[in-house]
Amino acid sequence: MKGDLFSSEHMVQPAHAPGMSVQNAKTIRYAVNGEMLARQGAMIAYRGNLQFERKGQGVGGMLKRAVTGEGLPLMTVRGQGEAWFAHEAQNCFVVDIDPGDALTVNGRNVLCFDPTLAYEIKTVKGAGVTGGGLFNSVFTGQGRLGLVCEGNPLVIPVSHQQPVFVDTDAVVGWSAQLHTSLHRSQSFGSMIRGGSGEAVQLKLEGEGFVIVRPSEATPQKAQQH
After folding, report:
1. Distance in angstroms (rounded) separating the CA atoms of residues 74 and 54
2. DSSP class of 60
3. Do residues 180 and 201 make contact, with C-beta atoms less than 8 angstroms apart?
4. Is the whole-model pTM more than 0.70?
5. Chain centroid to CA 100
6. Is the pLDDT of residue 18 over 80?
7. Could you tell me which of 108, 107, 112 has the C-alpha nearest to residue 43?
8. Is 33 helix (H, G, I), strand (E, B) or coil?
9. Which of 26, 37, 87, 190 is most buried, judged by most C-beta within 10 A?
10. Where are the beta strands (DSSP E) in 40-131?
11. Distance CA 202, CA 183 (A)
12. How far is CA 177 from the centre of its chain?
């Protein structure tokens, strides 16, 4: 057969090395040689000798929740082979985390990651129930982290001189060393008079960066409309 479908842009070639790579804008490929972790339900294809197991409680009964606020569970992928991961045709990105780095990420944006990365579930400081009950996964160690984002994200530098304010529904993640707090930008009265309606934002201060997606509606919200 011939046609654009079979061009090199779409045709999968053998992996050059084990580990994670971007297959295309919407898909991450992982050449598994041992073990890796991924969001449950995110595998769209695989080949080779791979086993997929739901990740549950570890030693001592300590439950490490897969991802956070949305309660998305993880799965462990073991064996030898290749697997492809995607989520709702969202854009995919790979982040290299080095020793000393700490990245906090919203659970809805986690797709897959190396087993050499450690993750801890934390409540976002200053953003309790009022801020949507924000819980994030903080990733540390050394390895690669695969993320998904609706559209192309913005990476905005944060400095002591210029804090950044973000919509809690739009934020993807940020440098874990940043200080977070809730910021109220408008009174209820100004909202009634035609204000933007963005009454509460997450304020980030310090030195680092914040990742923001160009969409405020979560997938759950979008399904309700």
Report:
1. 6
2. G
3. no
4. yes
5. 19
6. yes
7. 112
8. strand
9. 87
10. 43-54, 74-85, 91-97, 102-106, 110-113, 117-123
11. 6
12. 18
Tokens of 49: 């000798």
| CA–CA dist 213, 154 (Å, integer) | 6
Residue 71, C-beta contacts closer than 8 angstroms, at least 6 positions apart:
65, 107
pLDDT of residue 64: 43
Mean pLDDT for all residues in the chain: 81
Rg, Å, the chain Cα set: 19
- Classified as helix, coil or strand, 5 is helix
**Which among 185, 145, 148, 187 is positioned nearest to 163, based on CA atoms?**
185
Query: For 138, what's the count of Cα atoms within 13 Å in the CB-facing half-sphere?
Result: 15
Q: What is the mean pLDDT of residues 143-148?
A: 97
Q: How confident is the model at residue 221 (pLDDT cuts 50, 70, 90)?
A: very low
The yes-or-no verdict on residue 9 having pLDDT over 90 is no
* pLDDT on residue 65: 43
Q: What is the DSSP letter of 164?
A: E
CB atoms within 10 A of CB 69: 19
Q: Nearest CA to 121 among 156, 72, 166?
A: 72
Q: What is the pLDDT of residue 124?
A: 76
- For 73, the token pair is 């569970």
